Prior knowledge:
The complex is a heterodimer.
Chain A: H1 2-15, H2 23-34, H3 49-62, E1 66-70, H4 76-86, E2 92-95, H5 99-102, E3 113-116, E4 125-129, E5 132-134, E6 139-143, H6 150-154, E7 158-164, E8 168-169, H7 172-183, E9 191-195, E10 200-201, E11 209-210, E12 217-223
Parallel strand pairs in A: 1-12, 2-3, 2-4, 4-7, 5-8, 7-12
Antiparallel strand pairs in A: 5-6, 6-9, 10-11
Chain B: H1 8-16, H2 19-30, H3 32-41, H4 46-62, H5 64-77, E1 81-85, H6 88-101, E2 106-109, H7 113-117, H8 120-126, E3 130-133, H9 136-143, H10 160-170, H11 183-200, E4 203-206, E5 210-212, E6 217-222, H12 226-232, E7 236-242, E8 246-247, H13 250-264, E9 272-276, E10 290-296, H14 300-303, H15 319-322, H16 327-330, H17 341-352, H18 369-373, H19 380-393, H20 399-412, H21 415-432, E11 438-439, H22 446-449, E12 454-455, H23 462-468
Parallel strand pairs in B: 1-10, 2-3, 2-4, 4-7, 5-8, 7-10
Antiparallel strand pairs in B: 5-6, 6-9, 11-12
Helix pairs in contact in B: 4-13, 17-19
The complex binds iron/sulfur cluster (SF4).
The site of iron/sulfur cluster has 13 residues of chain B, from α15.
Amino acid sequence: MTDSRAATLGAIRAALGRGPLPDQETAALEARLANPAAGVVPGRGRVDAEARIALFIAEAERVSATTARVAGPEAVPAVVARFLREHNLPSTVKLAPDPQVRSIPWSQQSALTVTEGHGEKDDVVGVTGAFCGVAETGTLVLLSGPESPSTLDFLPDTHIALVPAARIFGTYEEAWERVRAERGADGLPRAVHWITGPSRTADIEQTLLLGAHGPRRLHVVIVDARAP
Amino acid sequence: MDSTAHTFKSNALEALGDTRLQDALGRLGHGFPVKRKAAVERMPEFEALRDAARDIKDHVLGHLDFYLERFEARVHERGGHVHWCADAAAARETIVGICRAAGARTVTKAKSMIGEEIAINEHLAAAGIEPVETDLGEYIIQLRREPPSHLIAPAIHLAKGDVAEAFRNEHKQFPGDRPLDEPRNLLDEARSVLRERFLAADVGLTGANMLIAETGSIVLVTNEGNADLTHTLPRVHVVVASIEKVVPTLEDATAVLRVLARSATGQEMSVYNTFVTGPRRPDDPDGPDEFHVVLLDNGRSAMLGSEFHDMLRCIRCGACLNHCPVYRSVGGHAYGWVYSGPMGKVLVPNLIGIENAGDLPNASTLCGRCEEVCPMRIPLPRMLRDWRERQFDRGLGPAPARYALKAWAFLARRPALYRRVTALQAAMLGALGRRRGAFRHMPLAGGWTAARDLPAPQGRTFQQMWSDRGGPRS
Lengths: 228, 474
Ligand code: SF4
């Protein structure tokens, strides 16, 4: 392996007509990596907070996600129960062991049977907490980890994601900034998922169908802060 | 896969006569290009985003050694492994070796063009390990034992009836008379069959749309979610990627993602964009125990600094295929190897040798649509002309074309002779064609006159008429 490593790097340098980079140039490249700069950022997402939330909802619904906006965590169980009823779905939900999800008073809704854990074969509805939302395309950002198992985002037929209204950012760049600020520069989890709408395919005669391998439905619940 | 690129002409003729294929290609014309146009119109900054994406890749290619070393170091820090492979054989051996060490019986796969390039499925099967494609289109063509016909829509050449037939033949566990008339029935059946395969797989094999030097992450882009089940459920995740896929930072990857889906399917963003960094962490409830990246050169380093350097910016979006009049007439299989359309015509001779690529560089009208829509602004027509020149220099083109070009070059270097020969030719053809004003048949030009008439000249050359009018005025 070491041989093919040296051979590949050697071939690259020979093709570029140089040897290993001089230290000065390496330092400049290291600096570029250490201070990641945003490039061209579309104006669409650079709007004020209320416009961001409206844009997020419009973009998510454009790609067949459904959304609900609630005044505070205590309103979430009723909204979830109603969504499940309206779609004729079972009322058993698997919750992510996430502080955001745990802060919801689930027991207030006797219609719901809740369990907690990672996603498994027979789970039908999963509820997870998003790290943030990105308005420019109605995208959710989810970070894998003990509190947010990737399996719960992908295995259940129905994915319900909670996102605080205050954490709907305009652009992807702001999302990266927050990941670095809150998790540290080396803080990427095993998987960062950007999710934009429910799973889909157009592989058969270009006919668009939802629910290819991931969830058939994505319901985003935007949670405003509890009134003080 | 063995290449049939050298028989492009007969492949293409066959494709033109295939009515089911022509129906499928007709659907393509109303799909992707229309959606791309709408997405571009919604994004006022699109041209600036293209420039930015191009500049990022140009910067990387000039410092490819540095970024690959940084990427490798970051993968190691996260507990992953990097395997450098010079060619397809080395990559296959490495992947089969990892699967064997894991005691793997089945490997789920998320669509990977590099996987096709190195024909990994055949080699896994030969080693007694079952590869299972999980992208719906790729799964369908795996059942039909045929190669993909499009970069992002591998089964675009098929009708739903073809898919139903493949499922009836292969999914013997279901009643033979079940309804499979609608795409929905087909998808639901594939979803249930593949769900079991995802849960049972020992190794997940994916490609990567990008590699990120800053973090050691790999980027996976899908709409189905199959790549995420592929890297999350099995014990081992193997990534196979070619060396030019690296970008510096998360922001740079983001810039490329902003043009990728819009150019490919006309979506604002694909449904799932996942940044995977290393194996599962100590507290993680899911994810693989092992994370391997197989870094493949296979001809890329030789393209650096050559006239085909810019081709290494390609992000495999498929826009050049969707907008190519030749691709839309003959489909992907006629090109005879893994990559098709304008990008394939430029890339394939680099990977399998111009002497094996036959007519590929000539299978183009040089209309320029591909370059117009390419998000990475790759000068595809210019590079096709470069291949044509190389073919001519090395005596590889079709013999009649070579002789004709040589004869013309001989005359063009001798102006007096040129004038006499063309005057004689024009006078003769003018006299012969006076009655109809055109020829139905012309010796040595049968290919041209088979489909159209050749207008007869008026009896005098342009230069003769020019000098009659007094020639150049000073
Ligand atoms: S050459 Fe350009 S248009 Fe074609 S697949 Fe590559 S990036 Fe897309």
